[in-house]
Amino acid sequence: MATAASISLTLPTQAPRLSTSVAAPLRSICNLPLDSLRSNVYSLRNPNFRVSASSMRIGTPEKISKTSFLDRRESGFLHFVKYHGLGNDFILVDSRDSTEPRITPEQAAKLCDRNFGIGADGVIFAMPGVNGTDYTMRIFNSDGSEPEMCGNGVRCFARFIAELENLHGKQSFTVHTGAGLIVPEIQEDGKVKVDMGEPILKALDVPTKLPANKDQAVVKSDLNVDGVIWNVTCVSMGNPHCITFGNKESQNLTVDELNLAAIGPKFEQHEMFPARTNTEFVEVFSHEHLKMRVWERGAGATLACGTGACAVVVAAVLEGRAGRSCTVDLPGGPLEIEWKEEDNHVYMTGPAEAVFYGSVAV
Ligand SMILES: N[C@@H](CCC[C@H](N)C(=O)O)C(=O)O
Hints:
Helices cover 20% and strands 34% of the residues. By secondary structure, it is α+β, with helices and mostly antiparallel strands. It has two domains: 7-194 and 352-361, Diaminopimelate Epimerase, Chain A, domain 1 (Roll); 203-344, Diaminopimelate Epimerase, Chain A, domain 1 (Roll), CATH 3.10.310. The protein has a 21-stranded mixed beta sheet that branches. A hairpin with a 5-residue loop joins β10 and β11 (192-195). α1 (20-30) packs across α2 (34-43). It binds the ligand N[C@@H](CCC[C@H](N)C(=O)O)C(=O)O. The ligand N[C@@H](CCC[C@H](N)C(=O)O)C(=O)O binds at residues 88, 141, 147, 150-153, 239, 278, 296-299, 302, 305-308. InterPro entries: DAP_epimerase_AS, DAP_epimerase_DapF. Keywords: Amino-acid biosynthesis, Isomerase, Lysine biosynthesis. GO terms for molecular function: diaminopimelate epimerase activity.
């Protein structure tokens, strides 16, 4: 079982500009007031500094370079790098020498706890490739369940691999996932463009039990959630998504007004979704500009969902609400999504940033 008895943190050399999304996880581990952390974090731009959770103090400067940190392999410790893609945050673990994740789903759930652990929406493992691919990505949600794919996660994964392999500039990898082959490409500006493959629309494969149209897809179907009839479209990007732009009472949503914590779980656990579902609530600003909030399967409300943003654009096109190329605003920031007519693939472009380095006793 994972214990958080010993956690150490090191910020990346290229320390990101401080924001609460950086400070909050640090606060949850170190239990220090946010303001004192702010000044500590600034001083931690020097990578030789180390925060020790046991002493609750900035420790003696220690010579740890990024490379030597990522190379560490002491038994009994799990070394990780915390990344985020628009605030959707992950604990990245180097498992390139292993065909199984280095920790159990139960341990992952403990590490993801924002009060008693490191705090994250999931744990991602970089593993050896299969079937000729460069790498395999596996992920546990914060509840310990294992999804097929994660869009923000695969952007973080690409940046993590580049760091592990000491690669610079434009880089592209082939990644085996539960959703098949995914191809992230790190661009010159540091953003990551990902070929997310083809959306799956066949109801049985999403999967959903909602009645399908003649193309076997579920588009603008009625879904009764506690007596409210929602209009939903179902899309899988390897993982299942239920997308709604409104209900019978309110055809066009104002997503900021939704009580996500109340309605999200009812969609997630709905009997029409045998594998549970991620749900996106969408507001349309124009044919090229959408805004969404997400309730994720196995993780709850998150600041962003990459597969969700892709599924939203596919659903918007199918419902005739938007064009194939859109900016999707999420609580953590915007993603650029394109569903290309030529190859039927969905492409997602967005940022991925390292937050801090750490070790935890397992
Ligand atoms: N946040 C992710 C999706 C992670 C998996 C999801 N919770 C599921 O269970 O399908 C993304 O960016 O795509």
